[in-house]
Design goal:
This protein is mostly helical. It has seven helices and three strands. Helix 3 packs across helix 6. The longest helix has 18 residues. The protein starts with a helix and ends in a 5-residue tail after the last helix.
């Protein structure tokens, strides 16, 4: 899957993308992708969490949904208050990444904002997403 072509086709921010099967946002304005096998442990949980916010999540290919979520980090990172940033850093240390507390991790303020952004973007651009031929 060519993430750069998808980024450009959907008019997403020109953030650098490293190709693979599942995405995460690196603090240096680069979206890095991981092998889907490494992400499978929580991919289904992520879709179900996102679907609670907006059922459209179940209709979007997980790779594209994860990519949009990471663009959501890029687009919403500045919305966290200082207090939320401090609390989130502490909670991330407790969770040690996603780990076993998947629901807690997905509900961290920055994670939830990124997911909400992704779902709003997907809903607004559903026709383009369907044209990508990765729509499920």
């Amino acid at each position: 899957m060519n993430f750069i072509k998808i980024r450009d086709y959907l008019d997403l921010p020109k953030v650098e993308i490293v190709e693979a099967d599942f995405c995460f946002y690196d603090i240096v304005n680069e979206i890095v992708a991981m092998n889907i096998d490494d992400a499978r442990n929580y991919a289904e949980e992520f879709v179900e969490f996102a679907a609670q916010i907006n059922p459209i999540a179940r209709e979007i290919n997980i790779v594209l949904l994860s990519l949009l979520h990471e663009f959501g980090h890029h687009e919403t990172y500045y919305l966290l208050t200082e207090e939320e940033e401090v609390e989130e850093k502490f909670m991330r240390m407790l969770y040690q990444g996603i780990g076993e507390n998947v629901a807690g991790y997905f509900n961290l303020p920055s994670e939830r904002m990124a997911t909400e952004w992704a779902l709003k973007f997907a809903e607004k651009n559903i026709d383009k997403i369907k044209e990508l031929d990765i729509y499920e």
